[in-house]
Write a structure and sequence with these properties.
The chain is an alpha+beta fold and about 525 residues long. The protein folds into 3 domains: about 140 residues, D-Maltodextrin-Binding Protein, domain 2, CATH 3.40.190.10; about 110 residues, Dipeptide-binding Protein, Domain 1 (Dipeptide-binding Protein, domain 1); about 220 residues, Roll (Dipeptide-binding Protein, domain 3), CATH 3.10.105.10. About 30% of the residues lie in helices and about 20% in strands. The strands form 4 sheets. Strands 8-9-10-1-11-19-12 form a 7-stranded mixed sheet, with helices on both faces. Helix 9 runs antiparallel to helix 11 and helix 15 packs antiparallel against helix 16. It is globular.
Length: about 525
């Protein structure tokens, strides 16, 4: 790790003061609460918000019938006054009588019908069109009430109701809503300046004006933080740099458990990795605790599976593999891969570890490779730019890799990841995310049940058994759940971080003095 000396910090701040001064003469958002993003938003229509930055801003501009931006991922009502499950395939919904769009139009049943049912049309072609395909019939009962009948029971559909509702009076007849975004969320759109977005409060928030500024370069973003050019940065400071911001007088760092899941994935058709004892040995050969301490500065938690401990469907009573290199060597012997020369330099076998070219991820892979060398496995780390890397993973062209699921909210995603019908091929890389070719008929059966069952208690039981099977079969080595890290201007009050890292906390945040007041 690079050690930042006081003189370097002073130089950084001096440079940033010049940068901030130049920005302030041109910045249309003086006096706003400034949030720095590491990637630009790609559109603000909720039906097309697949980019993370877009989704976060959309969650403030638009409102759905409910929201899963909660402490456990369990849905809470928003535009809906009530949602009644009449049967596993029928929902009856009543809208809040006071729900309105930013232009004053009331949020009505037709707006919901249009949003859901037109996503799959030839005109709209939303990436979320799968939602409309689940609906057999949408029946409007009144301007503020309606029924949704599904083709078959579908548990994830309830969470799908968090999709932001658009104004049908404006959007009908267009592939995307024309003009400025008009939603029904707590903030309304003011303007967009290239990659930057300015909002102002609509109803409820204490923040009057909210400015999202995109700074893609890590160093420049850090300079902006240190130089008083921002009020909030979330999950955009590398863990190794946290001591720098923690020492800055004007900043405070808060962390909270996340739903992010980092894992090691195996190709289960590989000549070595198809053996369970080899996979167990690899799990035992990784000192996860020391990695969390050294690389993450203790801002991550050990993982037992895809679902984080703060998730409503989490089941922690499963088989685990704590660091035990001696036991790892024994398992490799039992699997038939004995050490060829005892304490000599020859490995038991060699495997390739593919990773993206992200420097932090490469350094993690190299550390894991070093640890596995101690149990006799030679690991060659190969890094690739993202497009090439992801194409190889989707084509199952790998032996060992590490990736992250950024926010696991709905447990039905386990079906996408581990069901045997979701094994992609080179010809159909989009067939599913079961890229290691994991097969277990009982798990398939349970995952199908979990997708159909709509009662939460029963779903929790189903997914508990799924988690037990996955922990035993080890298609993944569950590494850790990284914390969500927010860096705030000192004096900012009431901001909180949700497990899915959305900006729900901005709805109640009381800002410190604005940039205008600081001058």
């Amino acid at each position: 790790m690079r050690i930042f000396m006081r003189q370097e910090l002073l130089l950084f701040i001096a440079i940033v003061s010049i940068w901030v001064g130049s920005c302030s003469r041109e910045n249309p958002a003086e006096g706003a609460f400034v949030v720095l993003l590491d990637a630009a938003p790609k559109g603000l229509d909720p039906r097309f918000a697949t980019n993370d930055s877009s989704a976060k801003i959309v969650g403030l501009l638009h409102a759905g019938l409910l929201s899963t931006d909660t402490a456990t991922g369990a849905p809470e009502l928003r535009l809906a006054k009530s949602i009644d499950e009449v049967s596993p395939t029928l929902y009856r919904v009543e809208l809040r009588p006071d729900a309105v769009f930013h232009n004053g139009d009331p949020v009505e049943s037709e707006d919901v019908r249009y949003t859901y049912m037109e996503m799959g049309s030839e005109l709209v072609k939303s990436p979320f069109a799968g939602m409309s395909k689940k609906i057999k019939e949408f029946r409007i009962l009144s301007k503020k009430s309606f029924e949704i009948e599904l083709n078959e029971p579908d548990a994830p559909f309830y969470s799908d109701l968090g999709l932001g509702i658009v104004n049908s009076r404006i959007c009908a007849g267009h592939s995307e809503c024309p003009g400025d975004p008009i939603g029904a969320g707590p903030f309304k759109f003011v303007a967009q300046y290239g990659d930057d977005v300015l909002l102002e409060k609509f109803e409820g928030p204490k923040i009057e004006r909210l400015f999202f500024k995109t700074i893609k370069d890590d160093n420049t973003r850090l300079l902006a933080l240190l130089g008083d050019a921002a009020d909030l940065v979330q999950n955009a400071v590398q863990p190794v740099m946290l001591p720098v911001v923690q020492d800055a007088e004007r900043l405070e760092v808060i962390s909270a458990p996340s739903f992010k899941y980092t894992y090691l994935a195996f190709n289960l058709e590989d000549q070595y990795l198809k053996h369970l004892k080899v996979r167990q040995a690899i799990a035992l050969g990784i000192d996860r605790k020391s990695i969390i301490t050294y690389k993450y500065r203790d801002t991550a938690r050990l993982s037992t599976g895809v679902l984080a401990p703060n998730h409503w469907a989490y089941h922690g009573d499963v088989e685990t593999f704590d660091f035990d290199p001696e036991r790892a060597r024994q398992l490799l012997d039992e699997a038939g891969f004995e050490d060829p020369d005892g304490d000599g330099p020859l490995p038991r076998f060699e495997i390739e570890f593919k990773v993206s070219a992200n420097k932090f991820r490469v350094s993690l892979a190299e550390l894991i490779a070093h640890q596995l060398a101690d149990i006799g496995i030679s690991v060659k780390v190969r890094s690739y730019e993202w497009g090439t890397f992801y194409d190889d993973i989707r084509s199952r062209n790998f032996q060992l890799t590490t990736m992250q699921w950024p926010s696991v909210l709905e447990p039905s995603i386990l079906r996408w990841i581990f069901h045997s019908e979701n094994i992609p091929t080179a010809e159909n890389r989009s067939a599913g995310a079961n890229r290691g070719a994991y097969r277990n008929p009982r798990v398939d059966e349970l995952l199908d049940q979990g997708n159909r069952e709509t009662k939460r208690d029963k779903r929790r039981q189903i997914y508990a058994e799924v988690q037990e099977h996955l922990a035993r079969d080890l298609p993944y080595v569950s590494l850790w759940h990284e914390d969500n890290i927010a860096v705030l201007k000192k004096g900012t009050r009431d901001y909180f971080v949700t497990p899915n890292a959305r900006f729900e906390g901005l709805k109640v945040t009381i800002p410190a003095e604005t940039h205008e007041q600081r001058k």
